[in-house]
Amino acid sequence: MKMDVTEKASASSSDVNIRGAALSSSSEVMNGSSRTRTSLPTGEASGVPKSKRRSKYRHVAAYHSKLQHSSLSRESNVPTSFLGFRNLMVIVLVAMNLRLIIENSMKYGVLICIRCHDYRKQDVVLGSMLFIIVPCQLFIAYILELAVARRVKETVGRKKKKDKSAEEGEREQREFRTIWRFALSFHILNTLLNLAVTSYVVYYYIHHPGIGTLCEVHAIIVALKNWSYAFTNRDLREAMLNPSAESALPEIYSSCPYPRNITLGNLVYFWLAPTLVYQPVYPRSPEIRWSFVGKRMFEFISLSIFIWLLSAQYAAPVLRNSIDKIAVMDIASIFERVMKLSTISLIIWLAGFFALFQSFLNALAEVLRFGDREFYLDWWNSSSLGMYWRSWNRPVYLFMKRHVYSPLIGRGYSPLTASTVVFLVSALLHELLVGIPTHNMIGVALVGMLFQLPLIAITAPLEKMKDPSGKVIGNSIFWVSFCVVGQPLGALLYFFAWQAKYGSVSKMTQG
């Protein structure tokens, strides 16, 4: 009896060991281990017949249990991310431009030459003289406004001493209207004379387009500032002489009321400030962050060098190779050149935008503690051409709105008429800015700006659409019209006109 119990215990222990070994062997095989137990057959190790072994997995999972749509379908409820496609486009863009860099290097070699330049000493001397003379226009405007302000002080002083009759008040109103007409005539003559002298000198005596462009830009900026200075002081004067609810001024002006703002320091600040709209007072930052100024100026200088390198190494060869194609009106080749130039011009334009509006204007605003630094909005997301023009160059937009568009609306003109006048003025300024320095008033910039009006009308409904596809289409029209067709084609036409007239500046000076 004792032996039976011992044998049964031994058999039970042996059975447990055998089953444990079989389970261990099975676990090792499942985990991909190279160690296997071969001492016992599988059937004997498990102790269970093959016909009785069943998998715990059941092939009945309901993988299709609800209505779903494809990711790219319009009916899809889950927003689809296109981050991967964006990354792909960036990679493709980098690869394509890298190919252009290699092709340019193999075909032309290094075209960068620091000592080589196409400007003459006369260009530098005359350009420097214009930069000194042009701001005198503002000081002439200051003298005019100072004389009128003194007349206003005398009038206000007499009002305090005695009460005036209605007839005397009306007589003074007529007198000030006459004074304003006289002052306005001088302001207009001052502005036109400034633009005429600068344009004449640049067109006939400054042959380098870059130097000429800087002089023309400076003259236009000062002319617009002069216009804003004159009209703003006129309305401030009117509000002082005839106070009423309609003539109430913004609260920010209370710290420097008219005519205390007619000072030389106030005018110099406006001359240097990164704005075209005159105010007696501007929001000011508490202190100057010189580290911020240093970073912005480093960006500006670096991007300026980058633009010069791209222009000399990549843009210039494409432009030169396009001359013979334009001469024979080879449309296919011209289109190919425009497409090739579009990438280069886009990069140059974006770099120029960042250098001017983000780097330079912010550095200047920091030095002057100019607080309102909304020099641009997110114009790259513009869903219409109208939104772009309201977003990308805020200083010019605010000037046109305050001194051209809003006065016309106030006089009863329709928004369409006011917008047409705004773009007409802008078109004339663009033609001056491009045609005068290149010595070719061919009207391309003028027509290009006026062509914005039908494009604005076409894309305006897309901006108001609730469907996102409308905004995508409008944004695509904006990019194509500006960066793929507009700017490269304009650059080709003005370069062709320059080459047809002069050949090049260096050849002209040698002759």
TrEMBL record:
GO MF, any single term: diacylglycerol O-acyltransferase activity
Gene Ontology terms: biological process: triglyceride biosynthetic process
Metabolic or biological pathway: Lipid metabolism
Mode of membrane association: Multi-pass membrane protein
Residue spans crossing the bilayer: 83-102, 123-144, 184-206, 297-316, 346-365, 408-429, 441-460, 472-497
Keywords: Acyltransferase, Endoplasmic reticulum, Membrane, Transferase, Transmembrane, Transmembrane helix
Function of the molecule: Sterol O-acyltransferase that catalyzes the formation of stery esters.
Protein name per UniProt: O-acyltransferase
Lineage per the UniProt record: Eukaryota, Fungi, Dikarya, Ascomycota, Pezizomycotina
